[in-house]
Amino acid sequence: MTLFRLLAIAGLFVLVACQTTKTQKDSHKSKPNIIYIILDDLGYGDVGFNGQDKIETPRIDQLAKEGIIFTNHYAGAPVCGPSRAVLMTGKHLGHCTVRGNPRWTLSGTPVDIDSSDVTIAEELKRAGYRTGIVGKWGLAENLSQGRPNEQGFDYFYGFNRHLPAHHYYPEQVYRNEELITIEGNITAEKKGQYITDLFTQEAKDFIRREANHSSPFYLHLAYTTPHYELTIPAERKAIYEDKDWPLREMKAGHYLNDKNGHVTYAAMVTGVDRQIGEVLDLLDELNIADNTLVVFTSDNGHEYDKLNDEFFNSNGDGRGRKRDLYEGGIKVPFAAKWPNHIIPGSSSEHVSAFWDFLPTVCDIAGVEASDKSIDGISFLPSLLGDAEQQQAHDYLYWEFNETKGPVQMLRQGDWKLYLFVAKNRIELYNVASDVSESNNIAKQHPEKCEQLTALLQEARTEHPEFPLTKRPNPYKKKK
């Protein structure tokens, strides 16, 4: 082969390589950055865009105004751990690895997601994304395979476990695999740096770093607000302290709650709203807002508002709260903004759930989900206002087994059926006409009950740690 031909072939390889690199960069540019903001125990009715009239949430409401609201979006579970596992893996509670909070297993040993699970972060890594999580992870109680850096995240700052996430002045958090000390923090005295501030700063630092890359990024921003304990720096309560609100006195125990519950709860929600605004402002400052999808939601229903003496109406028109499979326990606020893609001021009644987010981001990123057994369906058509192209679920399934369990629930269309397993009791509601689920119509519709009960039995696989059997409360002290 002549020298001329060798040089020609080499030049061709260089040209192909350059074209490939350019194509990859152009492909990355067409993929949006994705920021998923999830609060902890925030009720459906705790935000202005869902009717809240006591707590101010101007930045979250503006996000909703500039994008879309989903009015039928459900969490993965009525408590934190399994809800986040469902979100991350695209599998509902009948198939998910984690089906309950840490101590509510048959053996009492926590179950985490493991190497067999394919997470949102792992899927987006395949699509060229840089990935980060800031805040509450809660899926690595055993500090083993479930750790974020083992599950597709390039960067992690926050809590691997649940109990440390109960306090707002923690003395230690994880940065990637290292447990670091927060200088000056004294948890028991509620002194030092407020963790919500640190989460916001870490999120902004991650965005600044990633904005300089040619590849898109995914940021999972998991605030612990407004989960108990209820506490916030005193000066941030000023906005509500002059309100003529009754005092709901909070007690301090494991949760080092501030005394004035109503004022503290409202101040915490408004405080995190302001900090979400800081994140949104940074996107504008860096000129990346137009190419960033921002999603806002909560991990399950509220815990604070009393059902027999509601003050904030945190569950909206729904019944129940955290740990219930009624609407108040699992229907969560959802808003998303993506300039030039999502129609501002729009809304969707599409019935969706946490397990749909994984296939949705795969759809956005242009990859197919690796695990073909996921339960989720992409809701990208609904985000983009194309209802005709939106595939609907045949049904959605949940199960829960804490003090009120075991209970299974299935929604098909407007019908919701509950099976209280230990009591062999069935409840049936039509949420289109009875959103508060106050009228059990099981006796009037025996055929519908039979049909939906059959689906319940098909909806789950057995899990040795999460059988549908009655279990004692692991947190209750034995006499």
Summarize this structure as a short list of keywords or feature phrases.
Alkaline Phosphatase, subunit A; globular; 27% helix; 479 residues; 11 helices; 4-stranded antiparallel sheet
Strand order of the largest sheet: 7-6-5-4-8-1-9-10-2-11
Portion of residues in beta strands equals: 15-25%
Radius of gyration: 23 Å
| H/I helix tally | 11
Could you characterize what this model shows?
The chain is α/β, with parallel strands linked by helices. The chain has a single domain, classed as Alkaline Phosphatase, subunit A (3-Layer(aba) Sandwich). It has helices spanning about 5-30, 60-65, 80-90, 120-125, 195-210, 240, 260-285, 325-330, 355-365, 380-385, 445-460, and strands at about 35-40, 70, 75, 130-135, 155-160, 170-175, 180, 215-220, 290-300, 335, 345-350, 350-355, 395-400, 405-410, 415-420, 425-430. Helix 5 runs parallel beside helix 7. The radius of gyration is 23 Å and the shape is globular. The protein starts with a helix and ends in a 21-residue tail after the last helix. Residues about 5-30 have low confidence and may be disordered.
Task: Describe, in short, the structure shown.
Belongs to the sulfatase family. This protein has 479 residues and is of the alpha/beta class.
Task: Produce the secondary structure layout.
Blueprint: H1 3-30, E1 33-39, H2 58-65, E2 68-70, E3 73-74, H3 80-89, H4 120-126, E4 130-136, E5 155-159, E6 172-175, E7 178-181, H5 195-211, E8 217-222, H6 238-241, H7 261-285, E9 292-298, H8 327-330, E10 334-337, E11 346-348, E12 352-353, H9 357-365, H10 380-383, E13 396-400, E14 407-412, E15 415-420, E16 425-430, H11 446-458
Helix pairs in contact: 5-7
